[in-house]
C-alpha cells in the first residue's frame, strides 16, 4: 500500500510509546492519523503536532471503540490502516501464598479477564470494526486495507507472573492467520509484530540498573529496542503487499528466561 495524503490510519495507544512512534512515522509519510487513547492531554498534543485527530477511546469498551471510529472517519474518512498498540498488564502468578496466613490463593478470574480484555479482546474488537469499514472501500493497487496488531515476546516466552499477559498476547498471535484468511476475499491484509524489550515509558520509568540488565540480556544488539524501530516495521508491513498472515519477532534475538 502506498503511504501518502490519500490514506488515513487509526493507531490505538497512539499517545505514547510504540503507538506514538507509529503515529509519527505514518504522519511523516503524509498519512492522516487518528490517535485512540485515554490520555487526552498527551494524545491531543501529539495529534495537534502531527496535524491529526485525537479520539478519547477506552479500547475495552465496544461503545467507546465504535464512537472512536465514527469520530476518526468524520475527521479523515474511512481508514485503510489500523495499528493496534493499546495494551498492558500487571504481574501475578496463577496461585500465591499469603505471607501472613500461609493460605494458598488462586488468581482471581476477573484479574485474568481484565488483562485478556485489555490486550486480546480489544485488538479483536478494533480489527473487526475497522475491517468492516475497510471492506466498503474500492481497492487501491489491489488491496483495501492493512491491519497490524501488537503481540509480545511473552506470547512465546511468558515469564513467571505473566500468565494472563502471555495468554492474551498468544491469543493475538493465534488469531493472526485466521483473520488474514477471513479477510483475504476482502483484499485486507493482517499481520502481527511481537516486540521484545522496548524503551517505552513504563520501561524508562524502571530503575537504571534494571534497564541496563535487561538491555544486556538481548543477544544483539544488546540494548532496548527503540519505538522508532517498531514503527519502521509497521511501515514495511503496510508497504509490502505480499506480507500477510505473518507474525514477526522484533526482539534482537532474545528468548526470555523464566524470570
Automatic annotation (TrEMBL):
<dbReference type="GO" id="GO:0016491">
    <property type="term" value="F:oxidoreductase activity"/>
</dbReference>
<dbReference type="InterPro" id="IPR020904">
    <property type="entry name" value="Sc_DH/Rdtase_CS"/>
</dbReference>
<dbReference type="Pfam" id="PF00106">
    <property type="entry name" value="adh_short"/>
</dbReference>
<dbReference type="InterPro" id="IPR036291">
    <property type="entry name" value="NAD(P)-bd_dom_sf"/>
</dbReference>
<protein>
    <submittedName>
        <fullName>SDR family oxidoreductase</fullName>
    </submittedName>
</protein>
<keyword id="KW-0560">Oxidoreductase</keyword>
<dbReference type="InterPro" id="IPR002347">
    <property type="entry name" value="SDR_fam"/>
</dbReference>
<comment type="similarity">
    <text>Belongs to the short-chain dehydrogenases/reductases (SDR) family.</text>
</comment>
Amino acid at each position: 500500500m502506498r503511504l501518502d495524503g490519500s490514506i488515513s490510519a487509526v493507531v490505538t495507544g497512539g499517545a505514547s510509546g510504540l503507538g506514538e512512534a507509529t503515529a509519527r512515522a505514518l504522519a511523516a509519510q503524509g498519512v492522516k492519523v487518528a490517535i485512540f487513547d485515554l490520555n487526552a492531554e498527551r494524545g491531543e498534543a501529539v495529534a495537534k503536532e502531527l496535524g491529526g485527530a485525537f479520539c478519547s477511546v477506552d479500547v475495552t469498551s465496544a461503545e467507546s471503540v465504535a464512537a472512536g471510529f465514527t469520530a476518526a472517519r468524520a475527521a479523515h474518512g474511512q481508514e485503510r490502516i489500523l495499528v493496534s498498540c493499546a495494551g498492558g498488564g500487571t504481574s501475578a502468578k496463577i496461585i500465591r501464598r499469603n505471607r501472613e496466613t500461609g493460605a494458598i490463593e488462586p488468581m482471581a478470574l476477573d484479574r485474568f479477564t481484565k488483562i485478556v480484555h485489555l490486550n486480546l479482546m480489544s485488538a479483536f474488537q478494533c480489527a473487526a470494526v475497522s475491517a468492516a469499514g475497510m471492506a466498503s472501500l474500492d481497492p487501491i493497487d489491489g488491496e483495501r486495507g492493512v491491519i497490524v496488531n501488537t503481540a509480545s515476546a511473552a506470547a512465546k516466552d511468558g515469564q513467571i507472573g505473566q500468565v494472563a499477559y502471555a495468554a492474551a498476547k498468544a491469543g493475538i498471535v493465534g488469531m493472526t492467520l485466521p483473520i488474514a484468511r477471513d479477510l483475504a476475499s476482502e483484499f485486507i491484509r493482517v499481520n502481527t509484530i511481537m516486540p521484545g524489550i522496548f524503551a517505552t515509558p513504563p520501561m524508562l520509568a524502571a530503575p537504571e540498573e534494571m534497564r541496563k540488565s535487561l538491555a544486556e540480556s538481548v543477544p544483539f544488539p544488546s540494548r532496548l529496542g527503540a519505538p522508532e524501530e517498531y514503527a519502521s516495521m509497521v511501515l514495511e508491513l503496510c508497504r509490502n503487499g505480499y506480507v500477510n498472515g505473518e507474525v514477526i519477532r522484533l526482539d534482537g534475538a532474545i528468548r526470555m528466561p523464566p524470570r
